[in-house]
Amino acid sequence: MRRDGVDISSRRVPRAAVFLLALFALVSAVSPVFPQDATPLRLRAIVRQKYPLLFVRENSPDRPEGMAIDVLETIASRSGISLSWVILPDDADVMEPLREGKGDFVADWGRTESRSTQFDFSEPYITLPVNFYIRKGSAVLKDTRLQAGLHVGVVHLNVSDEIMSPRTDLRVERFRTVHDALFHLLSGEIDAVAHPGPALFEVARAAGIEDKIEKVEPALAESPRCFTVRKGDAAVLARLNRGLGLLIDSHDYHRILLKWFPAPMPFWTTKRIIEANAAAFLLLLLGLGGWHYKGLLRMNKALAESRARFQSLVETTNDIVWEIDANATITYISPNVRDLLGYEPGEIIGNPAFDLIAPEGVAQAQAVLKEAVQERKPFIGSENVFIDKSGGHHVTEGSGVPFFGPAGAILGFRGIHRDVTARKRLEEELRRSETERLSGQKYEAVGKLAAGMAHHINNLMMVVSGYGSILLQKMDLFDPRRKEVREILYAGDRAAMIAAQLLAFSRQSILMAKVESIDTLVEGLIPSLRALLGSEVELAVRKESAGAMIRVDVRQFGAAIEELARNAKDAMPEGGKLDMTTGTRTIGEPAGTGSWYPAPGPYATVSVTDTGCGMDQEAQSHLFEPFYTTKEFGRGMGLPSVYGFVKQSSGFVEVESAALRGAKVTIGLPLYG
Prior knowledge:
Blueprint: E1 2-3, E2 6-7, H1 15-30, E3 41-48, E4 50-51, E5 54-56, E6 64-66, H2 67-79, E7 81-88, H3 95-99, E8 105-110, H4 113-116, E9 119-121, E10 126-135, E11 151-155, H5 159-164, E12 171-175, H6 178-186, E13 192-196, H7 197-207, E14 213-230, H8 234-248, H9 251-260, H10 270-288, H11 290-316, E15 320-325, E16 330-333, H12 337-341, H13 345-348, H14 359-375, E17 379-387, E18 393-404, E19 410-419, H15 421-474, H16 482-505, E20 513-517, H17 518-533, E21 537-543, E22 549-553, H18 554-570, E23 576-587, E24 601-610, H19 617-621, H20 638-648, E25 652-657, E26 663-670
Parallel strand pairs: 3-7, 3-8, 11-12, 11-13, 21-23
Antiparallel strand pairs: 1-2, 4-5, 5-6, 8-14, 9-14, 10-13, 10-14, 15-16, 15-19, 17-18, 18-19, 20-22, 23-24, 24-26, 25-26
Helix pairs in contact: 2-8, 2-9, 15-16, 16-20, 17-18, 18-20
């Protein structure tokens, strides 16, 4: 063998010398020489307590460990630096201790433009990517270029905080720690978390939730990790940079890097080779038992088809299929819950089932479930009101059956809920329509009876009044019996007035209609209404019909309004307020047929609202019946005559009232022209 033209193969060299030379050459090749600085330097390094890559283990509170610590200790041992540690809480701000001189430099901090204006940074010892992280399987963000409107969480004063803060197209929320941000991400309160990856994944791994989050590519930015000194502290910065520069390309740096960022394990590990051999052996055994294997395949195929059939049924039905455990916690809910309530299944699973129910219905739902558990039986047709994501209410009807464990204990319930909001609304409309139809028929029948009675009363009282007038004329002016005859004539006049009201109720009175503005008519009634109501009732008039014109009998219109005001005054014996408002309204297609329902079209309206004692449902059901009254000395013909006049004028009457809450009566008359 020759080296530099000299034959050294015949020289005898001691074996120990050869070994030492080879070892020296190897060390020289992989480890550069670190020159010792002449001046020893004592430095205090500021570190945070639990920050991945740089953290304090619980069993060694005074001994920080991490990649930055290993790098610093390697530089210190070879550069004449003596290190001590200033350990801050997890969420502490490292800037103030550094400014106040409690430490000489920060052992690990991300370099940014804003931070560089306040402090000096060493060369980076590693660069970490800053990414968005979302819930596993979430479709809220698949590309960092589609970020507008996102609700993003960042850690306060972290490098990601500085990256996200200028973004006006995002909603940025700050948290004290990475753990807090991840908790709000998994609970669905924020859409994503922006943070350097290794630090976030270390926290997620420690919490056992790393499989519940995923990273979004590409990275938002890169975070150079550096040592940070006070502005102008050139001596410390130069010493750190010199040691770091010699370390970066050395074997020691790669050893530290692999310690904290291990190389990915090769696919064909010993374990996997053993597993592959075992699988091959298993296939051989299955080949020998072919008939059994085919049977298993057929059975598995049937099971898969059954499972697919069940899944298709669950996902295509309009009903919500659910499962809860023994604590009423939702363990499964079908995907169509998003169509009814607006939630993704993942937002509901793991939450109490009663959280979806309107507060006023929770007690009833709990009672139904408790009874089913105690009696170990299904519950059927339970009606609940669910609240969707936007706050809307949905009436549902549900049933559930218990399922049991091997020991016979109830493990939970499985069942379905069906949205019956539309059905309930239709049932209510049908009930109201039927009530209105029956009321219309009742008033039609009573009206015919009233008309017949009015004609008979008129005929009889015509005779009484006629003969009474003749008898009065034949009496002497000072005859004491004239008083009794006058009482006969007064009773005849009252009977005639009642007959007129009966005719009005039966819509057979003679109307002298003319075209007028409803605002003008109401304005003209104000003086008489004030005199009628007296000083104890405040009258307020609002004209909002914009001069709507109607064709109406002015005298009967005024009598109807005065009758409503009189009833309102009687409902406020201790005084109150009466509001009278004009307006317009368009009626669509009626819910039924007959005189009870107004014809479609535009109407002018006048509403009379009082603050009196109001009416219960019983009183409202008889409101327009002749001779029905709740007053001690009432005749019971006032509102029936109003009803008859309005219906004869092709209008409608509406009443809104409740006991102790006042009343509102609205008259609607067809617009003219």
